[in-house]
Amino acid sequence: MRIAASTYLLFDRDAVVTDPGRTAEDYLQMGLPINEASLHFKLQDRYVHAMDLRTIGRSPLRNRMTAAYFRLMGFRSLHHVGTEDHLHLSLPLPSDT
Questions:
Q1: What is the DSSP string of 17-49?
Q2: Is the CB of residue 89 less than 8 Å from the CB of residue 80?
Q3: Scanning 1, 33, 38, 86, which has the fewest C-beta atoms within 10 Å of its C-beta?
Q4: Under CATH, which architecture does the 2-96 domain have?
């Protein structure tokens, strides 16, 4: 995940990673229910499998190109607009393949 994000950030210097990992306290501070199955938590393999990229103030084309890049790298992508406008990127778990 870090390699794909780092490579992307080399070409898009304005990109902002808003959430590379979370704790239960982060959910409480945001006023959200704690989701024990969140890929933002460190999992049994000791890695975080999800991150968020800010999409506010970015063109729809740029957001689609960003999502396409990460999908080509093997990520799942979902554009969330509920709590904050962001692109949720996650790696599938080994059991998902």
A1: EEES---HHHHHHTT----TT-TTSB-TTS-B-
A2: no
A3: 33
A4: 2-Layer Sandwich (3.30)
